Amino acid sequence: MTQGSEALKHQLNDPFNENIGRNTLFWLLITNVLVLSPLYQHATLWSIGICAICFVWRVGIYLGKVAAPPKVLVTGLAIGAAVTLALVSQEIGLLNALVNLLLLGYALKYIEMRQVRDVKVVVLVGFFLIGFALLDRQSILDTLQLSFVVIINTCVLISIYQHSSRKVNFRFGVKLFAQSLPLAILLFVVFPRLPPLWLAPSMKNATTGLSDEIALGDISKLTRSPNLAFRVGFENELNNTDKQQLISNEQLYWRTLVMENYDGQRWSQSPYRKNEQRSAYGNKPKRAKPNAAGLAAPLNYQVITEPTYQKWLFGLDQAFSQSEHIVELSDFRLFSLRNIDQRLSYQVSSYPSSALDAKLAPDISKINLAIPNNSNPQTRQLAAQFAKDYPQPAARINAMMGYFAEQAFYYTLSPPKLGQQQVDDFLFTNQAGFCSHYASALVFLARSSGIPARMVTGYQGGEYNPKAGYYSIYQYMAHAWTEVWLEGQGWVRFDPTAMIAPERVLDGFDATFTGQDSYLQDSLFTSLQVKNIPWLNNIRLQLASIDFYWSVWVLGFDEQRQQQVLAKLLGNVSSSKVAIMMIICFIIIALIIAYFAGVFKLQPKQDPCIKRYNLICAKLANKGFQRDAMPPQAYAQFIQQAFSEQQPQLVANFDKMTEHFIALQYQPLSAKQVVLHQRLFKRYFSKLKRNLMN
To answer: What is the 3-class SS of 444-464, one letter each residue?
Structure first.
């Protein structure tokens, strides 16, 4: 036989050259939707359109309405998609462009596949897309959803090798997934926590929350957002069995950004702070912790922040973190060395009673005394009067705080517009505004009177969840306050909002603005609406608690938590103990899989009826009357011929037993008939035993 004919024979016998079966096509239709849907946020309209065309065409192929598309059409779509992505890649970001390219490759391969080997490629790319989706979607609900997608994608492969019903395919897929979980859990617990091997390029997503520049009305826009900003679990409250709130709302000032530059219209970070952030990648600054003598015990807590696609973090004053990718800046902020493009968990220790900058450097003092030239003359005049009446800075700033309480100011989420002289308009004309209006006015007053001051933005308060003992901080809790530097005290927080709307600080944002139309007006379904329905609010808190524990123990499973778990399992953790534990676990997992695969499958228990019949046949064989392969009826006739003259009673009993045996094994019987035949079968079996003993 020639080499060419051998190759042709091998190709014809190759199962991967077979056409795709309808069962596999059915699973592919479901998988295509489930794999692509979690990534829709990264797809352009052009990509979504091509994916939709490919899916509809494949549905037509499945229904027998259309044939496979010509290669010219597939090639044209591929070239058009590649050119379009090249044109918009700068706008959507490099990583988003690569994701779209992968989505289009998956969709185009999906439409043009003809043989089983093409299905394998589509399935493998599908697993890759599922893994990418897990990088971006890590909540417990997303994980459950993507686990289901993994099972369905596995069913595609199963349908190639197992020509069974869809129900059987799905059950086998669930079984394979369940068998893989113990190994996944073991590797998750013992595998070293490694830092990322690379930094992903920007996704070009819209940022959420606070910005490093702020106009006076910007924070009020966040009151329309019910999105979660971050969660915090304090060590003492997580271990508190009573689940009572131990930290009051007025203590929860979550520092995020420090604004020191004001151009008359917007507040922003000073160039000095921005340079410090840029240099932090090289020197990774860490502040010296304050002397614990005379200070209250630090607050230890864990922060789980939602993706912000920024690098600033949240903490109470003054905050320290041991995480390698987090640095501690000189303005007492925490700063991440990489973008927060997924949920991030980090440990923090705060010393709320420690002084911030007991000594102020001259260049920092100069930054925090600067005010725009020729701006807000009325405010400058008021500041000069304060400086004359109150020579001491501490008394002066207290008098300024009292000014807000004495005048006819009021707090609103929809303040009137301001002119060019923003602070003058606010203090002397409108006298209505949001937290950033009051904080900005106090900073300007303090600086104009010769006191270094700056604006701090962050979040204030938090919703306490008694089910699990943690706080949820939402975007609508964004807040701005003032820090003033006083001799001998350092930077001291002053919140003029507390003078106008003290309930905003004492009771939280929810208690203050429930009735305002502008509060959360962009959301139809909010936590406030649910709070009014106790049973529904209880469900919400329970679900939030589950998600919190998922974030703590799965997403936040860092090296420290890994060591804690291993210490509980092994005592003193050593590499040899870990290796032995892994070997034992691998053996147990292998045995479990082998058991389910049928390696240790025991012989099925023999039917008592068959066992008794075979016992009588064996006794007859000992007397020289072998049954061999004769059916029961033929064997009964053989015994009748052999014993009819010598033992007619034995023949009669064997005929009756055979009759009931055949009925039990081969005839459809009701439950009552089964009981009757079994009883009669046992009766004649007992008689035959006595007959054969003689």
So the answer is: HHHHHCCCCEEEEEEEECCEE
Taking 3-state DSSP, the helix, strand and coil percentages for the chain, each rounded to the nearest 5, stand at 55, 10, 30
* Residues 199-203: contacts with CB under 8 Å, at least 24 apart: 199/338, 200/95, 200/341, 201/93, 201/94, 201/95, 202/93, 202/94, 202/95, 202/309, 202/339, 203/42, 203/93, 203/95, 203/96, 203/309, 203/341
Amino acid code (one letter) for 138: Q
Do residues 155 and 27 touch, judged by C-beta distance below 8 A? yes
- Beta-sheet pairing, 266-268 with 299-305: unpaired
Closest CA to 386 of 372, 373, 397, 374: 397
Q: What is the pLDDT of residues 426-449, one digit of tens each?
A: 999 988 888 889 999 999 999 999
Which residue has 């395919």 as its token pair? 169
331 a catalytic residue: no
What is the value of pTM for the model shown? 0.69
| Residue whose C-alpha is closest to residue 481's, from 436, 431, 433, 426 | 436
Q: What is the mean pLDDT of residues 5-18?
A: 45
Q: Which one-letter DSSP state was computed for residue 475?
A: G
Q: How far is CA 154 from CA 103, 127, 293, in A?
A: 19, 9, 61
Contact (Cβ atoms closer than 8 angstroms) between residue 654 and residue 639: yes
Among 557, 473, 469, 471, residue whose Cα is nearest residue 238: 469
Q: Can you tell me the mean pLDDT for 238-261?
A: 80
Which residue of the set 51, 54, 155, 435 is catalytic?
Answer: 435
How far apart are the C-alpha atoms of 324 and 414, rounded to whole Å?
42
* β partners of residue 176: none
What is the C-alpha to C-alpha distance for residues 365 and 238, in angstroms, rounded to an integer? 41
Output phi, psi for 654, to 5 deg.
-65, -40
Model pLDDT, residue 1:
44
Q: Which candidate in 495, 510, 660, 677 is catalytic?
A: 495
Q: Tokens 């003029």 — which residue?
A: 496
Rg of the chain's alpha carbons, rounded to an integer? 38
Cα 334 to its chain centre, rounded Å, is: 23
In angstroms, the Cα distances linking 354 to 287, 368, 429, 492 are: 13, 21, 39, 10
Tokens of 543: 């679900």
Read off the tokens for 604: 């099925």
The active-site residue, picked from 42, 479, 660, 677, is: 479
Quote the tokens at residue 334: 């925490």
DSSP-assigned letters across all residues of 399-462: HHHHHHHHTT-EE-SSPPP--SSHHHHIIIII-EE-HHHHHHHHHHHHHHTT--EEEEEEEE--
Contact predicate 192/171, CB 8 Å: no
Q: Give the CA dihedral 105, 106, 108, 109, nearest 10 degrees.
A: 110
SS3 302: strand
DSSP-assigned states of every residue in 30-95: HHHHHHHGGGGGG--HHHHHHHHHHHHHHHHHHHTSSPPPPHHHHHHHHHHHHHHHHHHHHHH-HH
